[in-house]
User: Fold this.
Amino acid sequence: MKPLSPLDQVFLWLEKRQQPMHVGGLQLFSFPEDAADDYVAQLADQLRKQGIVTAPFDQRLTNRFGQPFWVNDEHLDLEHHFRFEALPTPGRIRELLAFVSAEHSHLMDRERPMWEFHLIEGLKDRQFAVYIKIHHSLVDGVSAMRLFQRMLSADPDERNMPPIWSLPLRSRNNTDDNGPSMWRNIAHLLGESGKQLGTVPAVTRALLGTVNRARKDPAYDSIFHAPQCVLNGKITGSRRFAAQSYCLKRIKAVCRAYDTTVNDVVMAMCATALRTYLMNRDALPEKPLVAMVPVSLRKDDSSGGNQVGIILASLGTHLNDAAERLRYIHEDVKASKERYANMSPEGILNYTALLLAPAGFNLLTGLAPKWQTFNVVISNVPGPKEPSYWNGARLEGMYPVSIAMDRIALNMTLTSYCDQIEFGLIGCRRTLPSLQRMLDYLEDGLAELENAAGI
Assistant:
């Protein structure tokens, strides 16, 4: 029996019918070249025989004296968690995304281990899909990504590979560039405040610098200047999921043309998509939208340690010109990184926790709806760099499915895979109708930058 950490309990406190707190992922596979037409059915039979379930997939919630604990589920029913399903005809990506939208809207049973694995057949062109969802109190999005990558192989001939629920879980403290979430920053500050007292002078100077700059520059991102927007209203429990792949070579060509980073270009694409979507709804604020963005602060090639900061980045949505908007985002992100340059890792965590504290307070209590710290979440989680396979099936695309919340109705998460950038957008179906149109607007944003650079 293991007690939940204060951070993990936060995800249980936040959960309500209109605000499920699970993360997920959609993976698209192609049949092996020599596979029979019933390959997916055979795979389902193989997976049903994987009776060994390892942590955290064998853990369920219980309460002792008002305190939640994880305990082994001695009556785990694998048929409840593993589901073999078929899409309705004609089996297009449209039907697949509709399936994920519906499934991601459903709360999970807290009397059982809170995860589901959906093996989906019925897609056209000899393809199938896997949709996995896991409660955020059980693993975070980065841990879920790592688990899925461990399920894969670089060998297309490898067979009889175990599913995700049969893999041993590595230490959750073994983090790298992918880094903490907003809540992890806040919990770090509240839970280890005594240890962090030495960072107070640097944190105070940085926070005062942010406030002073905000007073002088109304367009500057801060806890005071995220505009009120339809993205930040109350939400329902119904979700819309939209996903698409974009060519990484095109994005890198834009980076070279403007001397920016991949993350800058991706954010500029998101800014264009948001600007166009809101303009078409006559709902674009005069002030620029602000995004909450995790960024890597690593200066070397090392892989250990946690060197990540969370910044509030102005998206320049008040600017008409796409190239000007990209430069604006680049300079804003650069200034945020420079703010962290002389701070320790503890200081960075404390600074971001303080900066995001109003958002955390509002999400937990709902008592300060006018404290709009940011409008949207844009997160980039690195994925496999080489082609990957699962039981001989080639992974064609992997799309993150994150969390939408009250006053943060849209989450734009992306990951990299080989020569692709994979976008997964999740939003409230009622608050943000026709969300799937943003996929076209993302393409428009990239094309505008290419045209402006003469690519």
In short: The chain has a mean pLDDT of 85. The radius of gyration is 22 Å. DSSP finds twelve helices and 15 strands in the chain.
